[in-house]
Design brief:
This protein is of the alpha+beta class. It folds into three domains: 113 residues, Helix Hairpins (Orthogonal Bundle), CATH 1.10.287.110; 134 residues, Chaperone, DNAj Protein, Chain A (Ribbon), CATH 2.10.230; 91 residues, Urease metallochaperone UreE, N-terminal domain (HSP40/DNAj peptide-binding domain). It has ten helices and 15 strands. The protein has a four-stranded mixed sheet. The protein is elongated. The structure holds zinc ion (2 copies). One zinc ion binds next to loops.
Amino acid sequence: MSPAEIKDLYKVLGVSESSTKDVIDKAFRRLAIKHHPDKNKGNKRAEERFKEINEAHQILSDNEKRRQYDFMRKNPYGAMHGFDAEGFGAGPQGFKFNGEDFGNIFGGLGGLGDVFDFFNTSQRKSSRRGMSRPLRGEDVVISATIPFRMAAEGGKHAVTFSRTETCQSCSGTGAERGSKTTKCPRCEGTGTILVSQGAFGVSRPCPDCMGTGTRITHPCRECRGKGKVQTPRSITVKIPAGIKDGQKIRLAGEGEAGQNGGPNGDLFIQVNVEHDAVLRREGDIIHSSADIDLATAMRGGKVNVGTLQGTITLKIPPGTQSGTVFKIKGRGIRFTKGRVGDHYVTVKVRIPKNLNAEQQRLFESFAASLR
Ligand SMILES: [Zn+2]
Ligand SMILES: [Zn+2]
């Protein structure tokens, strides 16, 4: 299905794609009154228009039908894949969601078939071209869990995933090398068939040749005629310094193989960042905490702090309260783009427990001196 074959139902009702159901209902009522056959007796065009308005409203006013229609409009390519997946029973790795959606659109949704423009000579030509037009491959989305420090400092991470690749043995034709392909007798090589639906003829991809227009006499043994094979692939991904949990890395052309010489889809790697035992990230800032003893808190002193760039010695001024936050400038994330983040240390004062008698006595006199 090429996008050109999908009728713009929003345009039929004169509403925008983001219109609420309310707006759609109102537009429908207004148009339905205007073009009602009772008001336009004998006017064939008004009758056609009335049918069209009704059909558009039936789909756009039904949440589920509208969702599927929108999906199909945005993913004419995805729909093709779904067709492929359904017809050939592609492996579970292959076509994540399309098979199901496509099945619904063409199977369970009688009304939606009418959305496709009816056959005429010019469309017949364009749909024939459409079937062999190069199509971009699907995007593949995977996730990868990386250590905290790799996310902060950048690095390399190996990922393995499965994608469909063009069968090398038959170069994607699905026909055994050296064998001949013949014109599909059912669709006479057009790749589409005309199905009657009520009063209308509707164009559908030919089920005998899966829309290719050709019939394979000897299917390729390597791919069993699919033209594609599910292939595991391992690649090493460059992780940019400062990547956040949940961010995606895009690798152009690493997705599923295209059709009819079309380019590959892209690979998206959603990054999950592991927790670190010492360091914590909030926004672009690295946080950690450091324990100091009571004497250091009172008299001042030094404490060692582990940062992304190794251990540093932090100066503690006299009279430091527990919970004081010290900013260590430039010791945080060194972002790929050159920006340098900071590291914040929260100081916690260890209060001595289980004082011996001597310490108890000294502390009492110290406490008395504070009064
Ligand atoms: Zn093959
Ligand atoms: Zn056919």
